[in-house]
């Protein structure tokens, strides 16, 4: 049975020293590299935002980081500028072994639309192409790791389950923002209730 590993947003800007750093985000890289060797396919997602992206607080005068902006039916959390193509922060962590990657999915490329999930933009209508890629290969089993547990990892897992995939969350290969406080634990419980299995990197199968 074919199985794919989805590595979510393991980029410099989400690691210590980056614009939107996740605490200890870089600590998972060695385990992720080891994990990737045991999968049929490995896909990495990446935030890939233009400078005028809607999620950047700097593009909304008078607004601050972590404020909520309502645009139609979508509530947009405002963040520092991050993962802009051509900047060091958009690059994958330098220790991530990119030789294991079969596909890179760029998300959040539209100025007016953010994307947390590896499968859809935040309108839940615009696909990234990941689902089609996996379905064409006959892959139904996924393991998900990366950054951040309570945002992009969470939405990737939830969309995968909705699309009919069997999903393992690799608990020692994720780190969270935990905003608001307690968010990581709540998201973990939501993922489990939805059907995700929480596993360790030693036994993701």
Describe this structure as you would to a colleague.
- Keywords: Hydrolase, Metal-binding, Pyridine nucleotide biosynthesis.
- GO terms for molecular function: metal ion binding; nicotinamidase activity.
- Belongs to the isochorismatase family.
- It comes from Marispirochaeta aestuarii.
- The chain is built from 4 helices and 8 strands; from the N terminus they run βαββββαβαβαβ.
- It is globular.
- The strands form 2 sheets. It has a 6-stranded parallel beta sheet with strand order 5-2-1-6-7-8, with helices on both faces. A two-stranded antiparallel ribbon has the order 3-4.
- With 205 residues, it is of the alpha/beta class.
- Helix 1 links the parallel strand 1 and strand 2.
N- to C-terminal distance: 10 Å
The strands making up the biggest β-sheet line up spatially as 5-2-1-6-7-8
The Rg value, from CA coordinates, equals 16 Å
Structural class estimated from helices and strands: alpha/beta
| CATH-derived topology | Rossmann fold
Sheet-strand content, in percent, reads: 15-25%
Total number of beta strands: 8
User: Spans of 5+ residues with little confidence (pLDDT < 50)?
Assistant: none
For the largest beta-sheet, the strand count, sense and barrel status come to: 6 strands, parallel
- The CATH C-level name is Alpha Beta
Mean pLDDT: 96
| Fraction of residues in helix | 10-25%
Architecture in CATH? 3-Layer(aba) Sandwich
Please tell me what the overall shape is.
globular
Number of helices: 4
H/E series, N to C? EHEEEEHEHEHE
Task: Indicate how many domains the architecture comprises.
Answer: 1
CATH superfamily: Isochorismatase-like
